[in-house]
Amino acid sequence: MASSDFFQRFYFESLGIRGEIVRLNESWKQTQGLTRYPAQVAAILGESLCATVLLSGTIKFEGSLILQIQSAGPLKTIVAQTTHQRTIRGLAHWAPDLAVDDFQHLLPDGRLVITIQNQNHEPYQGIVAVEGNSIAETLESYFQQSEQLPTRLWLDADTDMATGIFLQILPDKNRTADDWNRILHLTETLTREELRELPSEQLLYRLYNEEDVRIIEPEPVLFRCNCNRERIETVLLTLGAAEIEDILSREGAVEVHCDFCNRLYRFDQVDIGALFNDKTTSRHPHPSQH
User: How many Å apart are CA 24 and CA 285, to the nearest integer?
Assistant: First the structure.
């Protein structure tokens, strides 16, 4: 079984169709960390992460692409994030009495939000209702509504691996409906085992050996959480000294847990005193500093 984590583009240049493949192994396991996700939750989170990696390959940006789902059902929240450097992180929140595994019953009245945070640009946000029987079908509907570009995704995930393949028609290219349908038909012959196990070039050859396909070198995908102590300190400062002192008096320390990487940040009385003293000093420097 292939062990690398990668993202790879390919093109049917004469047809004006682009494709992408993603496979997540270690980065997906690191994303799960110490969290024991139920199988049905892991499947949707893993597919969502694959989707963000695939979508990140369709745009030029410097920042992050975030897919977030909120629902009124037992699967409350999904957050999947990919940066332009192909680093990922994600999380899910679900009801403790999770007893269903059907997509529609897990995410009733769901809303999927795609946010692109691009350096030096205003964030872009697109919203679509969660519909169909999968993340793939919801995203296909999103592309049809927002960009009006025929798009297909095949996604698969469990607690060990997450993988996917993406096809999209490029605008302003000459092709026939038969060309697009032929490529879709070939891709539909792909089995779950092939998607998970075949090396990417072997997989593409198996599907499209009679087509003119240009394959781009794969890019590595890594898990990375951008939380750090300095960021947490900034959050504590925004809460204000009074609220933080109240927590200290009741708990003896302030603890902040990162849901993405399971890292725990602990601040005792000395830490908090130094934090707010430093902030006060920076705002009101000693006269000798003028």
Answer: 50
